[in-house]
């Protein structure tokens, strides 16, 4: 006999498009539960995230009724998490408790008193034990990989365990990775045979499958496989009629058996996450290392010692994500006692936009936009005025300017540029533009052959090659992207050489420190740097930035200690969503931006005409459907010929 717990976790990121919700609902969430209803002896542990439940509640209230019905019939066990699907380890304790409480309340509405937690992205951190206990949670679901990382062998992982921290104890259930790769991608009989193979005379032995609900209909090819070809019906039928398999729910198991013993789990997530969270170079090495072990047939033997990075290091890998995260943490403290602001803050903690694995994540501008919108909305309840402090915990201070309409965060140590220009009226951060960077999977030029040809390929097996059309336009930035980045460019360079990063940067201003002082109304920043031509020409760039009611004003003064002919370029990266087909070069004293689905209308006004280089900033990332070449924003570089002295003004105006 083998006890079998079958669970799914369904989630749509906050800020995802309505049609994505609708499609996922029709291809997965709805048919899954409808078929479950047909099999009254089938039982499933389910987790629905808050953003998804809110959408369903509003668009398909009949589904909520179906869930209630299934709970009542004992076919569903509701497992909770943070309401807006935060990675619990990445948010403050107070917020974790509030998030879990919110989803527990929703579960109550469905008729279930939830005691279990689906650990978002299975990001485990020992000190979560205390938070979970305080939230009334008794068990949490993690991966077998967590246990292997603690040194337990696979044959010890067919039971739940206790784990302890600070004198508090909680139960941890390991998810069986083999089942994650079998269900639903391989024929039903493979899962049945695997489960039968685990059966023995220990009545407490169990195997857990708990994975994304989207694998049942949303992932490529799965709708046809799971529903049209009848995989799910066949599976439910086989599971409920097999005499060696005893279908259970988590709570049922705990009412019958006691966990096997006490273990201590290290900070970990599932195996794939340990690859994705590594910096790109090391991720490539990691893949190579795993491949080598597999090639020698040594992987299974040594895999418990094979570990990559940890989830939180996405904040190291993507400084843009780190900045957004630390801004969220800052607001979390600011609005801790402001009930009206809390909901926005909790929404801003939705995990998807903060990282990147096999889904777009941080690469998807509309997901980041949703996070920023909620950060800005939450912060709008308080006003702190201009401040100088280390926003993103990198040891270097930022300048945060604030007036009634805007919040601007300037990094004096990084070119004196504006890294955040948030509009309180629109709830957008104009400066939310992700830099173009190399990812370790960009190098994979051939597809990996499938080990088995029955069933369908899971996302991890989809072979890919970068199309030539993308390769021609692909470039990697050496700098982060911001507003008011100061370039010195040789007069011979072109828009193409510039945007494809094949040009020569003459100055040392972009990512170098500026000195600064606040004055009544704004900040003055300056750097004594240089132009590095045949010899060094000392150069000074000075800019005054002031927030005004409808935007900002920047006054520039550039001076060279001896004459040198170059182009001085001020680059402004804006989070423009509307697709720009091809780069443009033109002369203008005024740039009008119209971006109906993104930042809206904006005007950049100069006190003279300048040559403008304008191009879309496009990143290459992987997603469940293949390659995404995504426009993160548009770069506008205002070019002024300079020889000795130069003074000009830029006015950024928001149009509402
Ligand atoms: Ca900082």
Structure description:
It is a single chain. By secondary structure, this protein is an alpha+beta fold. Among the domains are: 2-269, 7-stranded beta/alpha barrel, CATH 3.20.110.20; 475-655, Distorted Sandwich (Beta-galactosidase, Chain A, domain 5). Helices cover 30% and strands 29% of the residues. Strands 15, 16, 17, 18, 19, 20, 21, 22, 23 and 24 form a 10-stranded antiparallel sheet that branches. The N and C termini lie far apart (66 Å). Mean pLDDT is 95; it is low at 446-452. Bound molecules: calcium ion. Keywords: Carbohydrate metabolism.
How many angstroms does the end-to-end distance come to? Answer: 66 Å
Q: Report the top-level CATH class of the domain at 2-269.
A: Alpha Beta
Binned, the helix content reads: 25-40%
CATH topology of the domain at 2-269, what is it called? 7-stranded beta/alpha barrel
How large a portion of the residues is in β-strands, by DSSP E? Answer: 25-35%
Name the hetero compounds present.
calcium ion
What's the mean pLDDT score?
95
Radius of gyration: 27 Å
Give a count of the beta strands, DSSP E runs of length 2 or more. 24
pLDDT < 50 stretches:
446-452
Give the CA-based shape.
elongated
What is the overall number of helices? 20
Which CATH architecture of the domain at 2-269 is right? Alpha-Beta Barrel
Biggest sheet, open or closed, and with what strands and sense?
A: 10 strands, antiparallel
Coarse structural class: alpha+beta
């Amino acid at each position: 006999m083998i006890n079998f717990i079958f669970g799914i976790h369904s989630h749509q990121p906050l800020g995802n498009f309505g049609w994505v919700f609708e499609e996922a609902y029709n291809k997965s969430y709805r048919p899954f539960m409808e078929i479950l209803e047909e099999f009254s002896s089938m039982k499933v542990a389910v987790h629905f995230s808050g953003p998804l439940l809110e959408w369903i509640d509003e668009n398909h209230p009949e589904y909520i009724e179906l869930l209630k019905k299934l709970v009542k019939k004992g076919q569903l066990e509701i497992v909770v998490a943070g309401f807006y699907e935060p990675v619990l380890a990445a948010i403050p304790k107070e917020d974790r408790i509030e998030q879990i409480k919110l989803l527990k309340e929703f579960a109550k509405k469905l008729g279930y008193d939830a005691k279990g937690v689906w650990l978002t992205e299975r990001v485990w951190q020992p000190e979560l034990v205390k938070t979970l206990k305080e939230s009334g949670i008794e068990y949490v679901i993690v991966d077998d990989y967590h246990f292997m990382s603690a040194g337990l062998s696979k044959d010890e992982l067919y039971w739940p365990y206790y784990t302890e921290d600070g004198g508090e104890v909680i139960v941890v259930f390991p998810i069986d990775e083999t089942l994650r790769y079998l269900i639903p991608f391989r024929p039903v009989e493979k899962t049945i045979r695997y489960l039968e193979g685990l059966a023995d005379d220990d009545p407490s032995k169990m195997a857990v499958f708990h994975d994304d609900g989207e694998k049942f209909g949303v992932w490529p090819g799965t709708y046809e496989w799971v529903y049209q070809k009848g995989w799910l019906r066949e599976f439910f039928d086989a599971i409920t009629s097999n005499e060696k398999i005893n279908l259970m729910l988590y709570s049922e198991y705990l009412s019958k058996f006691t966990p096997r013993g006490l273990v201590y789990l290290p900070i970990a997530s599932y195996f794939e996450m340990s690859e994705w969270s590594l910096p790109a170079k090391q991720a490539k090495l990691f893949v190579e290392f795993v491949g080598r072990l597999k090639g020698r047939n040594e992987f299974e033997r040594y895999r418990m010692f094979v570990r990559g990075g940890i989830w939180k290091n996405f904040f190291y890998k993507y400084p843009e994500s780190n900045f957004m995260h630390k801004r969220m943490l800052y607001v979390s403290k600011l609005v801790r006692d402001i009930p009206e602001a809390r909901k926005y803050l909790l929404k801003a903690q939705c995990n998807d936009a903060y990282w990147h694995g096999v889904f777009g994540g941080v690469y998807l501008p509309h997901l980041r936009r949703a996070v920023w919108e909620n950060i800005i909305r939450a912060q709008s309840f308080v006003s702190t005025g201009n401040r100088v402090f280390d926003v993103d915990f990198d040891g270097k201070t930022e300048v945060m300017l604030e007036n009634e309409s805007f919040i601007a965060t300037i990094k004096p140590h990084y070119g004196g540029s504006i890294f955040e220009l948030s509009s309180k009226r629109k709830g957008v951060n104009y400066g939310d533009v992700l830099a173009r960077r190399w990812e370790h999977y960009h190098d994979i030029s051939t597809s990996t052959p499938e080990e088995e040809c029955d069933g369908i390929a899971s996302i991890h097996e989809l072979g890919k090659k970068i199309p030539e059309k993308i390769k021609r336009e692909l470039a990697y930035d050496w700098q982060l992207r911001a507003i008011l980045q100061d370039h010195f460019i040789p007069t011979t360079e072109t828009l193409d050489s510039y945007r494809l990063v094949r040009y020569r940067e003459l100055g040392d201003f972009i990512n170098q420190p500026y000195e600064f002082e606040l004055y009544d109304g704004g900040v003055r920043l300056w750097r004594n740097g240089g132009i590095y031509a045949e010899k060094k020409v000392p150069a000074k760039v000075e800019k005054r930035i002031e927030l005004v009611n409808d935007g900002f004003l920047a006054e520039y003064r550039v001076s060279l200690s001896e004459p040198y002919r170059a182009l001085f370029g001020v680059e402004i990266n804006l989070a423009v969503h509307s697709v720009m087909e091809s780069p443009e070069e033109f002369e203008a004293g005024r740039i009008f931006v119209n971006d109906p689905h993104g930042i809206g209308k904006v005007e950049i006004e100069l006190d003279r005409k300048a040559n403008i280089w304008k191009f879309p900033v496009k990143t290459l990332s992987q997603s469940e459907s293949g390659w995404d070449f995504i426009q993160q924003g548009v770069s506008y570089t205002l070019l002024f010929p300079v020889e000795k002295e130069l003074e000009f003004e830029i006015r950024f105006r928001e149009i509402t």
